[in-house]
Amino acid sequence: MPGPGEFELIREYFSSRFQTEGQPNSGAQGYANQSVVLGIGDDCALLNPPTGKILATSVDTLVADVHFPASADPFRIGSRALRVNLSDLAAMNAEPLWFTLALTLPESSPDWLEPFARGLAATAHAYGITLIGGDTTKGPLSITIQVTGACDAPLRRDGASAGDRIFVSNTLGAGAAALPIVLGEIDGSLAQQQQQQQQSEAAYYFPEPQFAVARAIGEYASAALDISDGLLGDLGHICEASGLGAELDLERLPIAPLAQSVKGERALETALTGGDDYQLCFTIPEQHLSALGALQLPITAIGRMTAESGVRCRLHGVGWQPSGTSFQHF
Amino acid sequence: MPGPGEFELIREYFSSRFQTEGQPNSGAQGYANQSVVLGIGDDCALLNPPTGKILATSVDTLVADVHFPASADPFRIGSRALRVNLSDLAAMNAEPLWFTLALTLPESSPDWLEPFARGLAATAHAYGITLIGGDTTKGPLSITIQVTGACDAPLRRDGASAGDRIFVSNTLGAGAAALPIVLGEIDGSLAQQQQQQQQSEAAYYFPEPQFAVARAIGEYASAALDISDGLLGDLGHICEASGLGAELDLERLPIAPLAQSVKGERALETALTGGDDYQLCFTIPEQHLSALGALQLPITAIGRMTAESGVRCRLHGVGWQPSGTSFQHF
Predict the structure, then answer these.
(1) Which CATH code fits A6-151?
(2) Beta-carbon separation of B330 and A2 below 8 A
(3) A83, A165, A277, A290: which is deepest, by most CB within 10 A?
(4) Does B326 have pLDDT greater than 90?
(5) Which of B12, B14, B29, B42 to mutate to test the interface with A (most CBs of A within 10 A)?
(6) DSSP alpha helices (H): ranges in A21-109?
(7) Who among A58, A107, A241 is closest to B44 (CB)?
(8) Any idea where the domains of chain B sit in the sequence?
(9) According to CATH, what is the number of the domain A165-320?
(10) pTM above 0.90, yes or no
(11) Taking CB atoms and an 8 Å limit, are B54 and A61 in contact across chains?
């Protein structure tokens, strides 16, 4: 039996679902968002952006068997695809508004589309973002999502000064520790491994965009980004954009329990260079440290920005050189 | 020799090129567009949308060997990828502002990237649109572009009334006639065929977004879209969105010379059901016909909207049924 045609597919799995459910409140045409004038179904979506705000927009592609196993649960793929994009909005301290979905599929299969759309809708609902349009094409499985949000004072990479303290949110290394387990390269048949399996799938498919931390640090931070390619590489981007360097005290690094249980002796290196954590790395000028401390946020100071360029690592005061580097696609 | 890494790739072929050339004038950071606060290089691009305008946004994916031959000249692929997206802005009567590029590549090859970026930049320059960000990933060759524009009074699909006259811009059928030649399914070794080859490559890789026609009809048209999937199917979308039907007088159809020379007796059907033309189809209320006629636009009246649903075709007054239907991906 052939799958549904392109237009029926869009209507069945996306237009109707996203207009009637998965949204916190209703705007024009049943859409969540008052800024959406016209959603799915015309040549373009039409939008009335919030007055006086700056728009922030980011696009990410997830390719099957590069960014997720092609055989993975489509619900989880839908969740991860939107969450990794939302993380970029959080990193700018932007509130989610709307997103588009460009979906390339080898075939139009309801068995895949239904749970994928459900995973996407559940995530959109949780973060208050509205699907406004997209494109479906036939080809190797690939998902491109572009998110747009609004902000008053965006957290850019280029605002750090020498002496600013460097922080990260929550813990690091879970994403990279999860990857070989999610890919099935490590067997999950024993009891301890089953627990690792569950933790890995949660870390990999349901990363939490750090909107709450971003809002809280918004008035204090001088620079910020999300750690998608590994702390060392991403902190390097803040250094480069701000024309500075950094020194890290590695004994302070908040290592994820999953990284410790899976990676053992290499947990520190995993936390330092592994990707896929989607935690925030940000810099705070000295004078804001006490005000920030009073907020009791799940954040850890791990070093400081320096006038000297390059990122230098110390472990208990001794210079330390990682064997790996951050993830690059090519 | 390995190709450049991901970050070097972005810098080399996109950030630097689009900041220093291919743009009609300079704004923030050397970008064309005053609305661009921050372009390529942070978690998000930052945008200051024009006050009092509605934003129009559209996304399209081009998959290698589905939408273009993988071996095609990368300059031409870059041209087509942006032009088909710009056509969606033109169809809403929106002026181009900015776009993103999500590029999936099997390998990071300067021989491919350099001409691709050049084709993209030349097109961006010609239409005054600014590259603000994107994503590069490793995988099967695929190009997803999202364009955003601004408009005062968008041309939607759902505004037609029964009795409105149906028009198309320029000629139809060239895109569909070009396809087998572009794909190399028809040999171009003879003199007549060489001419067809040149015309086909121009039609396929350099379609002209109809901004000038859209601007001219903006105050008169009740509905509009661009013909990407074939006139019959796309007119069906206006009918469905407006809750109406249509009747077409096929002898009025402006058939592209290329469709006539390549398709012969099937030229009419090609013009009616073939895709990839990116001409406008729009509806004009009776009372605006004389004002529109005075503008001497390259447009042709081909029928009228009806209260009765469905699209009915007549050829010299006799009912006519095409054997094919519009293109669908699945």
Answers:
(1) 3.30.1330.10
(2) yes
(3) A277
(4) no
(5) B42
(6) 74-91
(7) A58
(8) 6-151, 165-319
(9) 3.90.650.10
(10) no
(11) no
